[in-house]
Amino acid sequence: MNSWIDIPQNSDFSIHNLPYGIFLRDEKPTPGVAIGDYIIDLNAAAKVGVFTDLEFDTSVFESDFLNDFIDCGKDAWTSLRHCLIKELTAQGNLFEFKEKVIVDRLSADMCMPVRIGDYTDFYSSIEHATNLGKLFRPDSEPLLPNWRHIPVGYHGRASSIIISGTPIKRPSGQSKAPTADTPSFGKSKRLDIELEMAFIIGKSTTLGDSININNAEDHIFGKVIFNDWSARDIQGWEYVPLGPFLGKSFASTISPWIVTMEALEPFRCESIPQEPTVLPYLQYEGQKNFNINLEVGITPEGDEETTISESNFKYMYWNMAQQLTHHTVNGCNVNVGDMMASGTISGRDQHSYGSMIEISKGGKEPMELKNGKTRTFLEDGDTITIRAYCEKDGVRVGFGECSGKILP
Ligand code: CA
Fold first, then answer.
1. Yes or no: is domain 20-111 CATH 2.40.37.10?
2. 217-236 per-position pLDDT tens digit
3. What is the pTM of this model?
4. Which residues are catalytic?
5. Dist. CA 228 → ligand 1 center (Å)
């Protein structure tokens, strides 16, 4: 597909992608679609008549968040996508009003794309769960008895989910070293990342209703990169018996552009076989996993970046449809804009692990950086950048970057 807009080769934001985000225009948060190094201002496009043939109320683009548009439903998402592809490949209204409607992406300030009501974090990578089990409970079986039967998860904090580029203040809290008799208070010394992706709910449910696995994906609007910053020393002391709390809730960073399920469709792939067979409500047909390359880079203050991990979303043991089906099987309702994170995505070898605690074997084996220094956990001034992209038959659909810098 050729467009009259100049799209750099290898751009994450090809015409096959068309992800949604919120950017600042004249200091107002405004819905947009990324294309190459540009953004299509959806509100401006609606005002000049680009969307007159669409059957949903395009005043939803006056909103500061995408929730109202997402709530218009799947037919609206599809019709807008088709309209944009048509307008980008032929010279119609969008071309005619391009000076008003199209802005530079590289200089744009991005905002939170959705108002997140609730956030859930899963724990769905078998490699990560096994690695962490060994580190946190060295004397017992690493994978707990429920893990292969339930997509394990917990309810997190939506209030501290932040947009890429927002700095992270090193959290303080209680911790207790294994050799100490009593806990102490102070800044976290074992500050870590978690390489995750998150999906955004596109269709609400009513309290008491459950989502059937066969139409679970109809309830998903799209995905972002998700870095679930973690303070391992705080986590290690507090997590028994109810699980993650302050070691996780200080910040989680998302990438600004939501890549839709429709754009991800060509990148479906087989999942890891599930043994033993899961209960019937979690059984599914077809390919429910996605081949999405993931990379993590660390950049010390004023220095160059070192890639510390290369993983893939396809390593997930539990897929999104199973997660969402399980989440609602008890009648728990979900709302448009809710965010569900995958859990840390680790591959099979040390260079594909999704957290520093795994790469450094609990802090025992420092990783080497390009500047000659080493890291076990994050130091002040470090920036973590996560990138994600799909590529197949010359088609690239990417997520851009998810980054954050650690402040003292
Ligand atoms: Ca997590």
1. no
2. 999 999 999 999 999 999 99
3. 0.97
4. 128
5. 5
